[in-house]
Amino acid sequence: YETGPPSSCSGPSDPLGKAPSPIEEWLTKETFEDLFPFSNLGWGPHPCFPYSYESFIIAARYFPQFGTESPNQEYSPRENSRRDLAAFFAHAVQETGENNAGLYLGGRSKKEATDCFYRGGFYNWFEGGPTSSFLDPKSPGYSPEDGEECMMGGRYCAESAELNHFFPCSKKEKEGKGKNKTTRMYTGCYFGRGAIQISYNYNYGMFQDWLNEQVGIQVDLLSHPNLVITKLDPPLALMASLWFYMTPQPPKPAMHDIVMGSWNSGEKNEEGGYKGPIFGPTSLIINNECNGEDEGNPGGPGESRRIKAFKWFCEYFGVSAGEDRRLTCKDMPVTLDMIPQKMSYQPDWSTTWKNQSCECAPATYGGMIPYFDPSFYPLRFVQYNGDNKKKCEDSMYSNPSIMDSSFAPLFAYFSIGAGCILVAAVMNRMRNKRNRLDE
C-alpha cells in the first residue's frame, strides 16, 4: 500500500527512560520479526511505523506486570510469561490482523497455511483498514497521518452529562479535500486505532487520564485522537493496546488478570471450572464473543479465531494453552456483568440531608469513575479508589449537571458554602414545584 515507510525517522523513544522488562531477555527482535512479517499493512516491522520491536518493548516497560508475573501454581514462571504474550498477540490477530483466509486455498499444507495466517498480526492501523471507509477516499489509511480526519461514521462520539464532563468530543469540522469539498470532515474521530483497537471518546479519555495522571505523559487525545497512531515518544499504538489488555473496567477484570488467574469469577463460575489462569473469558471482555471454536480452518471470525490464534502462539512459545473447554466462555455459567459487585463512584444521595460536603460512594452500576472492589481486583488498582472518590466529588461541584441538569445553577450557587443539606432542600422544593406545573 502506497510507498512504504520513510527512508529515515527518529523512531520510537521513551521520554521517561523506563527500565528494561524481563520480556526483552527472551523475546528478541528476530523473534518478533518472525512472528509479525506482515505488520504495518504488509511492510513488516519498522521503527518509522506504529508497529515495531522497538515500540513493543518500550510499551511493555510501562506495564511491569505484563509477561513477568507468575501468581498461580498451574504454570511455571516461564509458562505464565509466554501465555500472557500469547493471549495479547492472539487478540491482536483477530482485531487488526491481515486474516487472509485465502492462504488455505493456494495448495499449501494445513501447517504452512496456518503458520502464515497467524503471522498476520499487527497488520492494520485503523478500524476497517487497510482501506478504511471512515477516511477520505484520497487518504484512506495508507499513511498513519491519514487518520487525522474522518467522515461522520468514524466519529464514535458518545454523549451524556457525565461523558460530556469527563470525556467531551472535539466538535471541529473541516471541508473535504479536492472534489469532496462539500463533504463534512471531522477531527474528533474516535474510531478504532491500534493493535487491540480502542474506540469511542470514553476509551480515548480513560487512556489519556492514565497517561496524564498515572504515568506523567501529558497528551490531549480527546482533541487529537490520531496521536494514538502517530505518536512514537512514547509509542502510543502499542501502549493503548496494552493499556486495554492490562486494565480492568468493572465489572470486567483485566484480560491479563484472567490469563494469570488473578481474578474472582464468582461462586457459580468457580463451581463450573471457570476460574484460575484461563483464556476463555478474555473474548467476552474484548468483544462479548462466546461462540466457541469452529472445526475448520481458519474458521469464522470472532472467538473462534482468538482461540485458534492463542493455541498457535502457545505452540510457537512451547507452552500449554490449557484445557479446551476453558479456552471459550461459551459454557460459562454466569457472565461477568451478572456477578454482584460495586463498580463505580456515584453521588451518595444519603449525604444530601447532612450538614456536610457532598460525597460519593461505590454503586452497583457502571460509570466513568471506576470503583475497584478489593474482592475482585488486584491491589495495584484498589489503591486508586481514594483518588477516584475525590474525582467524583469534585465533579459534582465543578459540573452539577452530572447530578441533575435541571437544577445545576442552584446547586452551583448554594454548594459554595452550604454543604449538601440546603442544596438538597432547594432542589427538592423546585422539583416538586416543577412537577405541579407539569401536571
From TrEMBL:
Pfam families, alphabetized: Glyco_hydro_19
Residue ranges annotated for the Glycoside hydrolase family 19 catalytic domain, each copy included: 186-324
Annotated Low complexity bias: 1-17
Highest rank taxon of the organism: Eukaryota
Organism: Pristionchus mayeri
Chain positions covered by the region annotation Disordered: 1-21
Sorted UniProt keywords: Membrane, Transmembrane, Transmembrane helix
GO term, biological process aspect, one: cell wall macromolecule catabolic process
Alphabetical list of InterPro entries matching this protein: Glyco_hydro_19_cat, Lysozyme-like_dom_sf
GO molecular function per UniProt: chitinase activity
Segments traversing the membrane: 407-427
SUPFAM superfamilies (UniProt xref): Lysozyme-like (SSF53955)
Annotated protein name in UniProt: Glycoside hydrolase family 19 catalytic domain-containing protein
